[in-house]
Each structure stands twice: as C-alpha cells, then as structure tokens.
Amino acid sequence: MTVYSGPVFDMAVNQFGVIANYLEIPMDERDRLLLPKRAITVSCPIHRDDGSVAVFEGYRVQHHLTLGPTKGGTRFSPSVDIGEVAALAIWMSWKCALVGLPYGGAKGGVNVDLSTISKRELEALSRRYMQEMIPFVGPHTDVMAPDMGTNEQVMAWFMDTYSMYQGQTVTEIVTGKPVASGGTLGRREATGRGVAYLAGRVMRELSIDTNNATAVVQGFGNVGSYAAFGLHQFGLKVIAVSDHTGALHDSAGLDIPALMRHATTHGSIAGFSSQLQFDPAQILTLPCDVLVPAAMERVIDARVAENLKCRILAEGANGPTTPDADLVLDKRRDEVFLIPDILCNSGGVVVSYFEWVQDLQQLFWEEEEVTRREYHILDRAFELMLTRARTDGVSHRTAAMAIGVEKVRAAKNTRGLFP
C-alpha cells in the first residue's frame, strides 16, 4: 500500500522492477531502495489581484539522502500530483548516481495553471511555496532547481525567501539562479547543450556526417530550444520543432537562432510562420537522424515506437518513453540508438552541482570551465553505460539505470540500517 499512484509513478515502479530483477536484488531490499524517504504536501494560500484568496497544493518528495543532500527541480503545472513528483524524484536518484554526483533525488511542484495567474501572483505563490518548505530543505538537506513552469526568476524568489528567514544570504539553497544572484555561467544552456553533445557523440560512433544529418525536436522550452541550437551548431538541419502551441516543419532546415529569439520574445513558437505550420501529432514519427523528445512524460508509447524513423533517440525530457515502448525499442536496437533520459538530460543536474559547489566555496568559474567539466562527466557516464550494455547484452536504459541503482544500493548497504 502506498500514497503514490498514477501512470508516471507506475512507470517508475515498472522500470525499477526490471532493473531489480536484472540485478537479482532480494525482495526484502527493494522497497527500501524504491520508496521515497519523505513526502511533503502543503497548502499555499495567496492573495489574488482582485483581493480574493486562492489556495494551491504543493509537493516535495525526497527519495534518499544516503549519498548527500537531495537535488531536484520544482515544476509549476496543472498536471502535478504526488505520484508524478515521486517518480521524478526516483529517476533523479538513479541519474545522480549514474553521473557520480553526491546527491539523492528529489522533486517538487505546485498544481497551478500559469496562464491563470499574474506575475505578482506567481511571485506570491513562489515565495509561499518556499516558505512552507523551509522546515524540510537546506543546502545540505535538499537543494531545489527549476523545472517545467519555473525559471531563474522563480529560483531567485525561492533563494530570497529562504535567506530572509535565515537572516543572511544563502545562495546555495537553490540552483538555476540568475548569474547576478549567485548562479553559474552555463546553467541555462546545460541540459539542452548536454543533449546535443551526447547526440553528436553517438553520431560519431555511428559514422553519421553531421553536415548531412537532420533532427526533430519535440518541445521548445529551455531544454528543447538549446538542444535544437546545439544540433544546429553541429551542422544538422533541424527540420521540425513543436511546443504546446503547435509545430513547424521545413525540410530545408528551420532558422533556429531566429526561432529562439521569437520564442524568447513571445513565449512560444506561435506566430513564427504560417507557411511552416505542421501537425504536432506527426512530429515524433518524421524521418530524421536525431529525434529529441523534450516535452512531457509518456509521449512515446508502443505504437509510436513501432513507427519511429530516427536513427538516434535522445531523450531530453524525463520519462518520455513508456515501458511498452521500451519493449519495442529493445527489439529495434540495431535500428534506433537510444540515449536514455537519465543520461541524456543529466547535463542540467551536473551543472547545478557545479553551481552548488561554487556557491559553497564562493569561487566562480568561467563558462568554458563549466562546459568542459560537464562534457567530461557526460563522456564518462556514456562510456560506463555503453560498456555495461555491450558486456551484458542489455538495453542502454537497463545499463544506465542498473549503474545508478547499484551505486545507491551499495551506499545503503555500506551505511547499514539505523538504528
């Protein structure tokens, strides 16, 4: 019996079961590895602009603190519930362990439709959420970061709220802050940049010429836009992109820098071009060399997986591929090279770790140093995954998750059970 439920949590449980069976983990160890250490649900009342009071429900799930503080994003979205947040926290644990960061996984969020609140109300909600979280978070307990629906400004409000209660500035309580408020150079671009870097790495493995290659990106938020920009810089033609407002397609290649400027100004790709509009439902199955799902969970089901026409599937989003789709992709290993989410989008948490370290030391690096260190960690994790997959004859997802689960399990077993 568990308080967690929903399709995203069920997916995380299913994936863990596959890994636990592969690693032959005894049944009496599994719940301790899988179930979160702590889950918090809070009410966040705010004054609306019209003088009324509205109450929003907020969550934070901390999966484990065995290796260090927990780390994870905070999303503001109408889809947020405790099951989704718990699943994302679990995935973050395996991700941090895979890339060698001294963190456990966490995730948080507020159930809110951002289109229905003003900027002043957003600030009030952000500050109230952090205020409610103060007893449960800290630079060595749980460090927040941005996610869907939040950004650098929200992180600055979080940091300021926490600092006011501490009576001193505590920049290391959150990552993904503006550089002017203790953030690090390269954090905004880190996740998408890492997706593009790993896709380029695989293209070299497969001897694909970047100058004659094509890419499709689903989702044009922070991750998708910078992934598209990175692939564009590598010489690929990004032939299609989409976001929540629609899709664009141009077989000659979209002008990604211009599209990024438009999205920054207008908040979406809507209005960029009426001639290039395309059916968003078809974007995932377009023929291309690199496909980047960088939007929501569970967008690639078994039917979509059967119809994928990409050579490389670079998972920019968390959990974009369902377990049923994984079974299909496992049979298509020779056709589709999967870069699983816990590796592919880990550049964000890697550079968040760099930001936390810099804040603790009050010593900041140049962007070139940040990027060099990010790529070094991604390369190391990629090699570990590839070696494990080839040695054991398993899928890339199984290999990557197994490495993460093994590290967490080893740390728990070494520390023992208290008391």
What structural category characterises the helix and strand content? alpha/beta
* CATH fold name of the largest domain: Rossmann fold
CATH architecture of the largest domain: 3-Layer(aba) Sandwich
Largest sheet: 7 strands, mixed
The overall pLDDT, averaged over residues, is 97
Order of helices and strands: HHEEEHEHEHHEHEEHEEHEHEHHHH
Spatial extent as radius of gyration: 21 Å
Q: How many strands in all?
A: 12
* Percentage beta strand: 15-25%
- Going by CATH, the homologous superfamily of the largest domain would be Leucine Dehydrogenase, chain A, domain 1
For the record, the CATH class of the largest domain is Alpha Beta
Distance between the termini: 24 Å
Shape: globular
**Major β-sheet strand ordering:** 9-8-7-6-10-11-12
Number of domains: 2
Low-confidence stretches: none
Helix proportion range: 40-55%
Number of helices: 14
Descriptive report:
The chain has 419 residues and is an alpha/beta fold. The chain has two domains: 7-170, Rossmann fold, CATH 3.40.50; 188-345, Rossmann fold, CATH 3.40.50. Helix content is 47%, strand content 17%. It has a seven-stranded mixed β-sheet with strand order 9-8-7-6-10-11-12. Helix 3 (82-99) packs across helix 14, helix 4 packs across helix 5 (152-166) and helix 6 (187-205) packs across helix 7 (222-233).
Concise synopsis of the structure shown:
Helix 9 (302-307) links the parallel strand 10 and strand 11 (310-314).
